[in-house]
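@channel sequence for tomorrow's demo:
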Amino acid sequence: MRSIEKYQGIIPAFYACYEEDGSVSRTRTKELARHLLAKGVKGVYVCGSSGECIYQDKEERMLTLEAVMEEVAGKMTVIAHVGCNNTRDSRELAAHAQSLHVDAIASIPPIYFHLPEHAIAEYWNDISASAPDTDFIIYNIPQLAGVRLTLPLYRKMLENPRVAGVKNSSESAQDIQMFKDEGGEDHVVFNGPDEQLVSGLAIGADGGIGGTYGVMPEIYMAICDAVKCGDVRKAKELQNDACRIIYALCACHGNLYAVMKKVMELREGICLGSVRKPLPAIIPEDMPQIKKCIKMIDETIGKLV
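structure tokens (generated this afternoon):
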């Protein structure tokens, strides 16, 4: 029986950290890892969508994971996303992640070509075989990957004893309940969409992995605590506040991650750089909206005191 305690709670999706010249920054990556550890989150999800993984080469992703592990190994849960759009690079990243003793690896399905389910299963199992002593998390994000994790495909994957569960970022909270039923109590299902954390937890998610968690972890940890305590009113109010902040963060010219990095720089004094093209950077006209977002975050966190 697998213990899933280390996966229960709030796990921010780790942001890509760059120097001013656009190169991946070991120093800034380590600073962000220390910052999130101090915030008290359960763990971090490294080199996923928020880590701009599809715009980085495998050596940059290795550097990022190494820097994170140097700071927080043994102190918090670390899940490394290793999926690339080819099996060879994905397997190399998986083996590297295991060598660093991460808690789990994860992967999206192959994108662009719509592969049959038996080919997707082979892709995931090949990756998992390169990290034979490490849990494997399936990343289900059909609205971006173009491929949906079906129950028949999940049943096939559960034949692999290393499959520990699903990071479910589909837009239906019902999927969480179905995957939880199929996998059983020793398999974990993470809520992916930040806007539905309350719904996901209420229907059976063990924890959450989210892209906006890093910029306001206190709010999401409070949501999680409220759900655990059965305080539906508080959970609903905080979720609604979080959603309003998300909408405000998305109302800039700059990409969401560029905006959140600027918010962290201004609120926390942590400089993480910008984003990698083709993601759009912020522009001067974004600053009034960014300051509005900071005010909204501060006000919501102020309610927690």
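heads up for whoever presents: The first strand starts at residue 10 and ends at 12.
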